[in-house]
Amino acid sequence: MSSPPASSLPFAPAASSWVNRFAQLGPAFFTEMQASGVPSPAWLAHSPACAQTLGWPEDWWVSNPPALEVLSGNALWPGMRPLASVYSGHQFGVWAGQLGDGRALLLGELNTPNGPMEIQLKGAGQTPYSRMGDGRAVLRSTIRELLCSEALHHLGVPTTRALCATHSPLPVRRERAERAAVVTRVAPSFIRFGHFEHFAHHGLHAELRQLLDFVLAQHFPACQSAPQPALALLGEVTRRTARLMAHWQALGFCHGVMNTDNMSILGLTIDYGPFGFLDGFDPHHICNHSDERGRYAFERQPHVAWWNLHALAQALVPVIGAGLGDEADVEAIQAELAPFAAEFEAEFLRLMRARLGLATAQDDDKALVDEWLRLLARHHTDYPIASRRLCHFSTAPGADLSPLRDLFIDRDAFDAWGARYAARLQQEDSVDAERQARMCTVVPKYVLRNHLAQQAIEQAERGEMGEVQRLLKVLSRPYDEQPDAEADAAFPPDWARHLEVSCSS
């Protein structure tokens, strides 16, 4: 008898594949519980690339009622051990006390070809850490996270992933009644700075040490042999965070709510809420409508990350040495935090050199990059489009630069920078065709602008889910020319200027 097609086979990871290492830490770290589930769930969208990361077949979800129920919070696969973890943190620079997984639930940790991965539901109901919230997510927030986490992955930015999303007719009240949805998130770990802050703040030093040892063993084994493993961890997290900030700034990505409980210990982009990609280049841009004082404005993101790393360092003090009053400890901590600025600058300049097509490094490159960014800021020039058109810059005498030049009101200012740029390219004997092709592999044509997400959301709210999957496919190839998706790379419509996103988005 011939085997049935793969899509008709019931799919479930083997029970023995679930390792659930975090669940072995003990009840001080989490509450074991079941998801609340939703009525009449249906698939919203799925990421074939994320499924591949897990080693799952691309069509794992097709005609698969058990998977739909599990990833909507209505059932479990054998071997899963669902739990909500506890953490604390600083929100908008103020100590917020105990927080935790208020609308997230870790289903378990799965062995995959790419190492152990945690599988987490977001929007599956209340937990002990919901703080008067309902623990639910809605279509708009779910769609935004699904699209952006996968988009950033394909842009080469460290991030948590999104495997799929489901939706339900269950009404959820935000500013208005909305449809419930659940996103399945994937990451090697969802541990945050706030996990360490929680145990340090409450004087639970034995648990803090236990958490440190766990993170070192599972995620930073090279730090275990250091004379001071906690210091070594702090140094590694500092460098990873600096490089992450460089990616965000080079790409024009605004996170919007960089609280310490939203900072990944692995240096991943985590917790997608009121994020946004820059349209017009504006260093002062605030993407979070709730951020009235602009703490998390685009240009401030590296500074906030630096502040958050100091909060992490403070939390690690009890497991570093005699205590913060010990001058040697203070100096040792400062030494591990000190590389942040140099690491950020080096990585940012590396990324911007690539975006400008520079194949060699010269001392005045930083000035050239800074002048380019100031020119964009002065005119609020569309950052994705200007960056992509720069890929087609030609050093040939009399070359037509009008597609790029016309983006700037002050043409003379652009001409002055263009002449300097052309001279720099000629210094390294840059070949236009070769450089242009190289730049198009690092400067995306497609990013998740707010209006694209909004259009997908509005269609989904009308029951038309196909646009989410289409856009997910486009964003999986951000550097490619896609003739059928030209509209997704066009200037944003005028109405997009009035879009606002907040923490409920």
UniProtKB/TrEMBL annotation:
The keyword Cytoplasm does not apply. Its cofactor is Mg(2+); Mn(2+). Keywords: ATP-binding, Magnesium, Manganese, Metal-binding, Nucleotide-binding, Nucleotidyltransferase, Transferase. It catalyses: L-tyrosyl-[protein] + ATP = O-(5'-adenylyl)-L-tyrosyl-[protein] + diphosphate; L-threonyl-[protein] + ATP = 3-O-(5'-adenylyl)-L-threonyl-[protein] + diphosphate; L-seryl-[protein] + UTP = O-(5'-uridylyl)-L-seryl-[protein] + diphosphate; L-histidyl-[protein] + UTP = N(tele)-(5'-uridylyl)-L-histidyl-[protein] + diphosphate. ATP binds at residues 100, 102-103, 122, 134-135, 185, 192, 271. The active site is at residue 261. Mg(2+) binds at residues 262, 271. Pfam families: SelO (PF02696). It is an enzyme of class 2 (transferase). It comes from the Bacteria. Its EC number is 2.7.7.-, 2.7.7.108. Nucleotidyltransferase involved in the post-translational modification of proteins. It can catalyze the addition of adenosine monophosphate (AMP) or uridine monophosphate (UMP) to a protein, resulting in modifications known as AMPylation and UMPylation. Belongs to the SELO family. This is Protein nucleotidyltransferase YdiU. It comes from Ideonella paludis. The gene is ydiU.
